[in-house]
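Bug report (template v2)

What were you trying to do?
Predict the complex of my protein with adenosine-5'-diphosphate.

What happened?
Run completed; filing so the output is reviewed.

Input:
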Amino acid sequence: MNARADVLRKMGKRIAFDQPRQREGKGEFGCYVFDQKMMEERLSSEVYAHWLQVMKGQEVFNPTHADAIAKALKKWAVQKGATHFTHWFQPLTLGAAEKHDAFLNWDEEGQAIESFSGKELRQGEPDASSLPSGGLRSTHEARGYTIWDPMSFPFLWSRADGLTLCLPSLFFSWKGEALDHKIPLLRSEQAIREAGLRLLRFCGIEAKSVFSTLGAEQEYFAVDRRLAFLRPDLLLTGRTVFGAKPAKGQELEDHYFSSLQPRILGYMIDCEEEAFRLGIPLKTRHNEVAPSQHEVAPLFEKGPAAVDHNILLMEVMRQKALEHDLVCLFHEKPFAGINGSGKHNNWSLATESGLNLLDPKGDPLVFFTLLAAVLRAVHLHAPLLRACIASAGNDLRLGGAEAPPTIPSVDVGKSLEKMVRELIHKKSVDLRTIDLGLSHVPEHGADLSDRNRTSFFAFTGNKFEFRGVGAAASCAWPMTVLNTIVAESLHVLLDSMENEVEGEKWPSAAPILQKAFQSAESILFSGDGYSSEWRGEAQKRGLPDVSDSHHAYAALLEKTTFQAFAGVLAEKELRSRYEIFVEHYAKTVEVEANVMIDLFRTHILPACLKAQREWGKSLKILADLQMAASPRLQDGLEMLSRLIGDAIAAIDEVERKKEQTKDLGWDAKAKVLAELTRPKMHAARLLVDQLEKIVDDSLWPLPKYWELLYLK
Ligand code: ADP
Ligand code: MG
């Protein structure tokens, strides 16, 4: 019996998952977080007040307080059962990195003691030399430094009965260049804070702070672990490189919002309980469109906290899945022919007092100026927005199956678009009419804008939804780009407004806003982003359409990008990101090609040859009995043989195209792999998928799509 058949047999008898599991219990929300309440409870009033000011961006951290904070943190962590601490940071690979150290030291008499100093809190072991730097570090100065970020709350993370104190940290080179996703994100928050406060000041609204808000809707697949473990492609690349379309995919639309199956619900509840303890405010769970696809969405939070929480949540989900004998897949397109997974980034700007700057019911000048700034920013930096969601995985997702297309455009909803267009085309601008329009804005944000699943960037009532972000990506980079380019545009508009506007602000600012809307008009689009007409129309409007990510990255090297990023990322840091992303893209496709070649030659081809032998034997038996074989039988064997031959040739071709890139630099390598190797991989896949449809099921070594998607 082959391994696949064995797993299937066992699954038929499965009872383990239907039994109730012992739950740890939720505990209190955020009970594993050293949050403001803990700070107040466990620190002196002086240290507490200082740390709070640092968190609000009002003061720079004073290192003389580090020892007191370290002592309080260690006491709290050890009381809860922690043994280790780690500087938890976000390198430019995916996810987060951690290196654990015990709360252990020698005292003066050489006795082992539990210890954690302010120095250890502030700075991690300066190394991490194997993480990507994109040329920012040469080998002889390869050190990277992790330093504790006092803007985020430390937390405890429980895994395998061990509890670790995680210190959210920043990662940079010894010259101070950002090597992570978090530093630019925090710098972009500073940029948007300054621009937002300037806007509010201009409009006569008092506020202490402005920050981005983010609610990241996370899509994922959960499949049976034992089946997934028989698919090296899923485990090594996160996606299937082969797999014939099952008899039933998502066409009946019977999975979306369907009743949650107990095994999956049990998994979701476990993830939610862990998230709850970690202070991740998960709100929504539901089945998504594709079979075995689900979504989880949190309440929105301040941008950087939401980014951290999403990264942490993904790791929690990966690890909890294994406890349920599942594998959680965040790849953007794990299965061909059905929907892929995105991470819709809902973004807005808000103040400490809860004012949402994108609320159309709020101050009209604030709302329209910010709207104009967003449109201007998306128009001016369209290629950069495409670049910030670029990845080898997302290339397989974008442009179909409910994922947005690769042409940047903004859907502000029909009624708002009408208002904006009226303003654009008015000869003499009298904003009182627009004011009138606003008072008609319906109470329900949803009515103001429809849910356009084909939109690149959509205004959804009181926030923008960036649907293009890939499920596996960190939200940090797209959020950094959004904050940065919108801050830049706000400053440009406010430069004019502060100079030219006199008297009553709202009407006299109108011509400036009109000009901004006019120059960005070509980005407005509320139609079907998949239609071929839109492709043509977008081309006429001069909008970029970069379907391949390896081309999209070039936007990082544009002068307009360097300008917008002043104070967020220096030119050198942007160049390093370009290199890292291109290299990552190329390596990803290369690994996929390797997996494909291996899988075909060592798993699939032997099974096909066996099937061919069996078929030949049948024909021989007939011949031995001097019975005439049906021509269909002969044809069938011929077809099988031809397909096998074609598949062998196609895989050889994949290998050749991959080998061609051997001595190339990363740019050229990415280009060849994307433009020559990937199409060959696609062609090979089609042949193998045909073979899957005719080879004896009991011989097929890889779990099939229907098994992965439907067996739980
Ligand atoms: P949808 O129609 O897309 O399901 P929801 O209202 O459910 O819209 O919101 C989806 C996500 O958007 C949630 O994570 C929610 O917290 C987030 N969200 C709502 N308002 C804002 C906001 N002002 N800023 C950022 N995210 C927001
Ligand atoms: Mg949404």
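What did the reviewer find?
The radius of gyration is 28 Å. The longest helix spans residues 571-624.
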